[in-house]
Amino acid sequence: MTQTNSEPVKFEKDTVLVIFGASGDLAKKETFPALFGLYSEGCLDPSTKIICYARSNVTVEQLKKSCLPYCRKSTTGNDEVKMKKFFNMVSYIQGQYDTDDGYIRLNDAIEDFEHERGVQEPHRVFYLAVPPSIFLTVASQVKKNVYAYNGITRVIVEKPFGDDLESSRELQKGFKPLFRAEEIYKIDHFLGKDDVRRLLTARFANPFLNQSWNKENIESVQVWFKEPFGAEGRGGFFDSTGIIRDVMQNHLLQILTLATMEEPVSNDADAIRDAKVELLKCMEPLGPKNVVAVGQYGKSVDGKKPSYLDDDTVLNKESKCLTFTELTFAIHNDRWEGVPIIMRAGKGLDEDRVEIRIQYKKNTSGMFEGCTPNQFVIHFHPEPTIFMTFNTKAPGFADKLHQIKLDMTYDQQYKKEWVPEAYECLIYDAFQGKYANYVRDDELDVSWSLFTPLLKYVEGPNAPQPEIYPYGSTGPKGILE
């Protein structure tokens, strides 16, 4: 969703948002900046009450100072005044996650606010920016102590949603008796990125593009995720996660699914998610035959950057944790049968880039036989861009072909408009009860069914030995390009 400054769409009045884990890194870097962005652009009603809950002994002023470096400037300026007004909406409660006391004080604070505002039907949103190990602990306490039985309750849950099929199902099983399906909003922040959301519009609102989006015309589909840094401070987390769980099973699979699914029967949230699930069911489960390359970054060529195992936060100095993986996918349906689908992800590489590239087939006949094939490309990070390549005649007398870009980047077309960032979009959607861009349980189940056999292979006794590639390089040798 893209809002303009002249047409703000606000949340409903007197909403209560509770941020669990408010003193943590996620809240500092993503949640608060997103909320301030919505407020500064006129999309967060000033009557909203934001209550922070965490175990740490911090103040609202300390929370403000910690998040300031991550808040972007508003399109209308006057940010200092806006920031002051925004944090006047914020309060903080210190409490434990596994005992009733803090939640009782939280409920008292919520009820005092709702009584003061004369709220008849409460609208409460609970954001779980906490480790997955305590998802169900917090969720149980929310249901027990602060659930809005006479109003609306929504619970936003951050990934990861389990670490394999079994643990994901256990998590779903734990949430099921607590909340209805429409009350749970599982975030994959890539689904909030504007260019991810525009992928559907580009495909299905332009018949000429969608009609060429098939095995007769497309040579390959490639998804790339490259980071120019390593574990650096996150080794404890990353060593138990690896690159497959960290970005491939969730973020990159979401991009791939939207790029390859059939057109939904409507713009309804469940119709979109139904189409995604149907596409995932056409994919073969991943195993040894799908692995093209696996790797782990070593020292940089100049010796200035440490290897993965030399990172102080990586405790297991014999770890075979994968920091790079390249996979192939097979989609068995009429549109994609036989088309190579390639996904690559790595840390400690030569650049910062996340993209999907639809490579069209070469012209095999006629006067321009063998000319450079067309591409449809979306760069999601660091600079969001979307373009197609197009063959035309170069200037001059000679009939020389030249390939140009047909640029569809929002920044070029709508320079004065506010384009919401991922978390701004997703928080907005949750407040409005829109769940098309959140992950549904059956989609989660199918995606883990695809990846769990692969994870058992790369983490099992017959796991492939990761190739050591230099920090700052393009990755292991022999990867597909």
Automatic annotation (TrEMBL):
Residue span(s) of domain Glucose-6-phosphate dehydrogenase NAD-binding: 18-196
Broadest EC class assigned to this enzyme: oxidoreductase
Reaction catalysis annotation: D-glucose 6-phosphate + NADP(+) = 6-phospho-D-glucono-1,5-lactone + NADPH + H(+)
Record's GO cellular component terms: cytosol
Pathway: Carbohydrate degradation; pentose phosphate pathway; D-ribulose 5-phosphate from D-glucose 6-phosphate (oxidative stage): step 1/3
InterPro entries: G6P_DH, G6P_DH_C, G6P_DH_NAD-bd, NAD(P)-bd_dom_sf
Domain (Glucose-6-phosphate dehydrogenase C-terminal): residue spans on this chain: 201-478
Keywords recorded for this protein, A-Z: Carbohydrate metabolism, Glucose metabolism, NADP, Oxidoreductase
GO MF annotation, one: NADP binding
Enzyme Commission number(s) from the entry: 1.1.1.49
GO biological process, alphabetically ordered: glucose metabolic process; pentose-phosphate shunt, oxidative branch
Keyword Oxidoreductase listed: yes
Highest taxon above the source species: Eukaryota
Signal sequence, start to end: none
Functional note: Catalyzes the rate-limiting step of the oxidative pentose-phosphate pathway, which represents a route for the dissimilation of carbohydrates besides glycolysis.
Family per record: Belongs to the glucose-6-phosphate dehydrogenase family.
Descriptive protein name: Glucose-6-phosphate 1-dehydrogenase
Species: Naumovozyma dairenensis (strain ATCC 10597 / BCRC 20456 / CBS 421 / NBRC 0211 / NRRL Y-12639)
Gene: NDAI0K02980
